[in-house]
Amino acid sequence: MSTENTRESGPRLRAVLDAPALFEPSVAPRAAGPARLLGSNESPHDPLPEIVAAMADAALYVNRYPDYGGRDLTATLSRVHGVPEDRIVPGAGSIALLQMLFQAVGEPGAEVVYAWRSFELYPVLADLAGVRSVRVPLSDGGHDLGAMAERIGDRTRMVVVCNPNNPTGTVVGHEEFAEFMLRVPSDVLVVLDEAYFEYVRDPGVVSGLVLHRRWPNLVVLRTFSKAYGLAGLRVGYLVGDPAITTRVRRAYLAYSLNTPAQAAAVRALELRERLLDRVEEAVGERTRLRDALRAAGMSVSDSQANFLWLPLGGDSAAFARRCAEDGIAVRVFPDEGVRVSIGARGDNEAFATTCERWMQHPSSDT
Ligand SMILES: Cc1ncc(COP(=O)(O)O)c(C=O)c1O
């Protein structure tokens, strides 16, 4: 047998990996002044010193593997949320947990239903898992749960509902979600992605942490990346029926949740009240910024998350360039809109000024 390599293109990897970058992160603009990072929906606050100290203490043990099941973190989450420990799986960010769910349902021919536009990583995770994406258009910027229920068929294994929706900031109400669940077959997994739940102030919004006991096919994803300000550490958690959490633990990428991250998340839960005060501040800034942009004449929808959505359509890319010239990173979805995170007061004011100037001279070429 010839040992010559007859293939011209090298090792044969999955075709999905030949696509250009599947996900482009938001980058800091190169501008004269300070970069204002409003592109990734992060907390603008430095971590609390107590959290930094917890990470530093944990760093003394990094010659050892991390606690495999994240037992301290699971126990603390259980106490804080009043949820039994066997219903909780912490992971290296909610994206990692979502990836495990995509893999868990990803047999040949499987389909996953989600709204579009929604979180950019859903199609990426679907493609990587070899699952077909069924995208259901938003209606008025929000989930059309009726249309989503209609798209559930024999091949559907999972439905993802992003609540509040990234990037539009819209929310799903408790009643409409309960009606939707009645239409979902019990062998289809429903994932409520609640990455921004702590920023919700609308009392009618569904909470997965209330409903997961009622529906064994419902799981909830929460994260420490947003309200808890730990995006760089990668910690999130999943809550759901033990029949699902047990299997997610089997699909788990071993030791992916590291020791300093676990320690920081436990400390963050202990200091929850102080961190939630920061969220309250962000909610106030959200209203202030929305009102300022509307006063400048921009169209801005109400948001229940730590960002605002500007449906600028064909002007989106030019507007984002203008923001970059002013040192402000935003997230642009060409021909659709721009998402801007709620930042520190100074950053929000700088963004409002850019918007006022934009409304006076809308094209970046003038
Ligand atoms: C809807 C949604 N889910 C999940 C995530 C990611 O969360 P994590 O940092 O926990 O992986 C994000 C981050 O932007 C998001 O917008």
What proportion strand? 5-15%
In this entry the ligands are: pyridoxal-5'-phosphate
The Cα radius of gyration reads: 21 Å
CATH superfamily of the largest domain: Type I PLP-dependent aspartate aminotransferase-like (Major domain)
Count of folded domains: 2
Helix fraction, binned, reads: 25-40%
* The top level CATH class name of the largest domain: Alpha Beta
Overall 3D shape: globular
CATH level-3 fold name of the largest domain? Aspartate Aminotransferase, domain 2
Side-by-side strand order of the widest sheet: 2-8-7-6-5-3-4
Count of helical stretches = 12
Total beta strands: 12
| Low-confidence blocks of residues | none
Order of H and E elements: EHHEHEHEHEHEHEEHHHEHEEEH
For the record, give the distance between the C-alpha atoms at the N and C termini, rounded to a whole number: 67 Å
Main sheet properties: 7 strands, mixed
**What structural class results from the helix and strand content?**
alpha/beta
Please name the CATH architecture of the largest domain: 3-Layer(aba) Sandwich
Catalytic activity: L-histidinol phosphate + 2-oxoglutarate = 3-(imidazol-4-yl)-2-oxopropyl phosphate + L-glutamate
Modified residues (N6-(pyridoxal phosphate)lysine): 226
Family: Belongs to the class-II pyridoxal-phosphate-dependent aminotransferase family. Histidinol-phosphate aminotransferase subfamily.
GO molecular function, one term: pyridoxal phosphate binding
